[in-house]
Write a structure and sequence with these properties.
Layout: H1 4-8, E1 14-16, H2 25-33, E2 38-40, H3 47-60, E3 65-70, H4 76-85, E4 90-94, H5 99-107, E5 111-116, H6 119-128, E6 133-136, E7 142-143, H7 149-159, E8 164-167, H8 173-181, E9 186-189, H9 203-211, E10 217-220, E11 227-230, H10 233-244, H11 248-255, H12 258-263, H13 288-306
Parallel strand pairs: 1-9, 2-3, 3-4, 4-5, 5-6, 6-8, 8-9
Antiparallel strand pairs: 7-11, 10-11
Helix pairs in contact: 2-3, 3-4, 6-7, 8-13, 10-11
The structure holds flavin mononucleotide.
């Protein structure tokens, strides 16, 4: 039995991962209204844009939602100030070390749930005082760590005595059940929501996600900050350059603004289309409520088929 619902005050044990340039108030509120936990991105927003999304989210839902603190972004200090002023109850801290901010956030009454990549990090966030954490495996879309969800999750669950939420490569009910069997107390899902009606990415981005299959996914930035993305013209050029080493300037030119180029401007050839390995499960545009409904129907079917 998943147990994370009580922790967040939600009905279903599913979090929609914070996604820079993607998970605005429309997506987050739709997920919260459908019984999960919607998570507003902060990455890519100015402090005032971020505040606007919090206000709009509150207009669309009276259910709990969270903000994602993208710790590697240069304006993170300002973003944190806004999150505190707006008294958002939950912060999901991803993409860096939460230690410098943890005490300040919790002293202000916020519950901080860090995203971790291995059991050493899991133990560290427990020492900081985290009451739950999210383990994101390298199957995920976007910035990734080294370990895989399926292989590492049980060990991470055993390494700490707080609830662990599984993320990375979960886009079907069978995978939700697998995460539960491996000891997760809930799941965080990103890629599966990319073609949702309420997701405000460019329509060309949605088409690309719907067409993409498992073999269409690759990783850029292996030498620095690995990012799981869709293969396209940008990766065809980027990957050999990266392998050769050097030519940093050209790599930077290709990478700068690439996420926004894909998700906001719809340039799916030269932008960075961040998707996870389970992208093959995204086959059409549908509402968030339909996606969550399908995931839990599949979960129940899978459970009853193995628990006869
Ligand atoms: C387009 C995209 C953008 C993302 N941006 C962020 C981000 O800003 N902060 C963060 O903590 N995680 C980010 N992630 C990771 C998600 O929050 C989530 O953990 C991940 O998508 C789960 O794996 P899945 O894509 O296989 O479902 C991003 C993922 C995607 C696909």
């Amino acid at each position: 039995m998943f147990t994370i619902q009580e922790f967040f005050g939600i009905e279903k044990p599913i979090l929609q991962g914070g996604m820079a340039h993607v998970s605005d108030h429309n997506l987050a509120a739709a997920v919260s209204n459908a019984g999960g936990l919607g998570i507003l991105a902060s990455g890519g927003y100015s402090a005032e844009e971020f505040r606007h999304h919090i206000h709009e989210c509150r207009k669309l839902t009276d259910k709990p939602f969270a903000v994602n603190l993208a710790l590697s972004y240069p304006n993170i200090e300002e973003i944190i100030e806004v999150a505190l002023e707006e008294k958002v109850p939950f912060a999901i801290a991803g993409g860096g070390n939460p230690a410098p901010y943890f005490q300040k956030l919790t002293d202000a009454g916020m519950t901080v749930v860090p995203v971790i990549g291995n059991s050493k990090m899991a133990k560290k966030v427990v020492e900081l005082g985290a009451k739950a954490c999210i383990f994101e495996g390298a199957e995920a879309g976007g910035h990734i760590g080294a370990l895989n969800t399926m292989a590492a999750l049980p060990g991470i669950v055993d390494s700490v005595d707080i609830p662990v939420i599984a993320a990375g490569g979960i886009a079907s009910g069978r995978q939700i059940l697998a995460a539960e069997i491996l000891g997760a107390q809930g799941v965080q899902v990103g890629t599966r929501f990319l073609a949702a009606n309420e997701c405000n990415v460019h329509e060309k981005f949605k088409d690309a996600v719907i067409e993409a299959q498992d073999k269409d996914v690759t990783v850029t930035g292996y030498m620095s900050h690995p990012v799981r993305v869709m293969k396209n013209k940008m990766t065809e050029k980027y990957l050999p350059l990266e392998k050769e080493g050097g030519r940093q300037k050209e790599l930077e030119e290709l990478g700068t603004g690439a996420t926004r180029r894909a998700s906001v401007e719809g340039d799916v050839e030269w932008g960075s289309v961040m998707i996870g390995q389970a992208v093959g499960h995204v086959t059409k545009r549908e509402s968030v409520a339909e996606i969550i409904d399908t995931l839990f129907k599949e979960y129940e079917e899978a459970k009853s088929s193995i628990c006869k």
